[in-house]
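S.,

Sequence below, as promised.
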Amino acid sequence: MSSSDDAIQYGVVPAGTTKTISGLQLLNAIMEGTLPAPPIQRALDFRLVEVRPGYTAFAGTPKFEYYNPLGSVHGGYSAALLDSCMACAVHSTLEVGYSYATLEIKINYVRAITSDTGEVRAEGKIINSGKRIATAEGRLFDSEGKLYAHGITTCLIITL
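The prediction came back faster than expected:
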């Protein structure tokens, strides 16, 4: 992990807090460091880098420690980044008093990621958000715009 990551606080946002702010406010507070970042971001060395209504982006650097037995980064790394950006795109549209639960994700792997790939970026965009169901799509690419994976999610909107 880089030395700048040492200043990031990791943890779970208190339930009382999640009930009093919108999804967009929560994500901005995590990105700004006023609320803790999820521990998964520390474990897989990725971070939330951009948030706006219906859109989020995460960036991370794949490592050798994430390799599968076949000599490339395990697909779970791509899935974690895509799940994060897509679900958070949904979360960014939610008003105070609402949350979500992922019902389904589908990931398409386009090419292998290695530790030589460099930083990757996962961008999630809302497709549709209704009162009970929301869908979003995501794309994972490198600094040159080369696509590595893409996906779609369906989330259930729930009242807190």
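The chain has one domain: 3-159.

Coffee later?
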